[in-house]
Amino acid sequence: MSQDLNALLQQAQQMQSKLGEVQRELARRSVEVSVGGGMVTAVASGELRIREVRTEPELLETGDRQMLQDLVAAAVNAALTRAQEMVQQ
Known about the structure:
This protein has a single domain (2-88), classed as Ybab, Chain: A. The chain has helices spanning 2-28, 57-62, 65-88; strands at residues 30-35, 40-45, 50-55.
């Protein structure tokens, strides 16, 4: 029985190590999503964190605060959704 338990523990350690490798790989990967005809772009990591949000200067020049807020929210949400899909694959 002791050998079976040792083998099981060893297998669990190997799985944990492999999971750590997968998590590190996902952290290095990212997805990029643009909305509003490319006016706002959000980049999310495989850790489901936003790395960057970019806006086109023309959007800022319009002075339309509500549109800016809506586009940023849409870009961030879309990037996180795409990152979640990447993680699930």
